[in-house]
Amino acid sequence: MTRINLVPPAELCDQHLLAEHRELTRIPNAVAKGKYHLKGQPTEYKLGEGHVRFSLINWPF
Q: Which InterPro entries match (predicted)?
């Protein structure tokens, strides 16, 4: 999967943009349902496992 924040959006195809949109809308829904806990967040951005947890600290919950 291409990380949208590492590639200029103009270079991404529609499929990449739609996949990123689906992932971004999953984050607040998962927090609201209690599936993600805001404890144990990574302090630095990372690719792969943990990138969603890092994104959670940048959202206004």
A: Pyr-dimer_DNA_glycosylase (IPR004260), T4_endonuc_V (IPR024796)
8-47 pLDDT, tens per residue?
A: 778 888 988 888 788 778 777 877 888 776 677 767 766 6
Look at the chain and report how many structural domains it folds into: 1
Catalytic-labelled residue, pool 20, 25, 26, 44:
26
Told to judge if 26 belongs to the known catalytic residues of this protein, a careful annotator would answer: yes
11 is catalytic: no
Domain encompassing residue 21: 12-56
Residue 31 lies in a domain: yes
pLDDT at 57 > cutoff 60:
no
Is residue 23 flagged as an active site residue?
yes
In terms of Cα–Cα distance, which of 36, 3, 35, 43 is closest to 19?
3
Q: Using CA atoms, how far apart are residues 42 and 56, in angstroms rounded to an integer?
A: 10
The verdict on whether 25 is a catalytic residue reads no
3, 11, 23, 49: which is the annotated catalytic residue?
Answer: 23
